[in-house]
Amino acid sequence: MMVDGPRNSLVEVDTRSEPTGPRNPLGNAFRAHETALARETQSGRMVDPSRARYWKIINPSVRNALGSPVAYKLEPGLNAACFVQPDSAVARRAGFITGHVWVTPYDHTQRFAAGDYPNQSPGGDGLPAWIEAGRSTEDTDIVVWYSMAHHHIPRPEDWPVMPVGKIGFMLKPTGFFDQNPALDVPPPAGHHCGAQE
């Protein structure tokens, strides 16, 4: 990631309800709670729809007009947890499937989430092994790894042609711009709102 420069950090954002009381008399208030993932050992985070969880890649050295760090939001799409047993060949060789979001400092030798040769190895390489070093992931050149899984229990309707399953994620500016960038677009010529007398 390079959010307005090479020194970034990863922040996990959960939505929490405010308890009913003087600050929330109607009981309908909620707020975003941010947790910095300061070390790679905090990796392997899971999507959590019950908390509307997402992640922000921030540049702590660059502030927007509101005084917040500029950021991009990693917004998860459809995803599923890993259902294989921890000691299975799949989990040993592709340990990254046990978490959705991982963060590591950039290392040119760490290019593949499962390690260099997952099919020929007994397992234990890749993201789960790399994060054991416990390196700092704050205000540095980071790599954010997002793992997606499509969960599929076969249905009679899937035979003989299985339908497409869609998964993905989005990266959205979140406080990266000081205002909506579309506000800078001039009105169309000759339009009644843009006409001048």
Protein architecture, described:
This protein has helices at residues 89-93, 127-130; strands at 9-17, 30-36, 54-63, 69-76, 101-105, 142-146, 169-173. The protein is mainly beta and 197 residues long. The strands form 2 sheets. A 5-stranded antiparallel beta sheet has the order 2-1-3-4-7, with no helix packed on it. A hairpin with a 5-residue loop joins β3 (54-63) and β4. It starts with 8 loop residues before the first strand and ends in a 24-residue tail after the last strand.
SSE order and pairing:
Elements lengths: L8 E9 L12 E7 L17 E10 L5 E8 L12 H5 L7 E5 L21 H4 L11 E5 L22 E5 L24
Antiparallel strand pairs: 1-2, 1-3, 3-4, 4-7, 5-6
**Broad structural category:** mainly beta
**What is the ordering of alpha helices and beta strands?**
EEEEHEHEE
Unreliable stretches: none
| Main beta sheet | 5 strands, antiparallel
Distance between the termini: 48 Å
Overall pLDDT confidence: 92
Shape: globular
Please report which band the strand proportion falls in: under 5%, 5-15%, 15-25%, 25-35%, 35-45% or over 45%. 15-25%
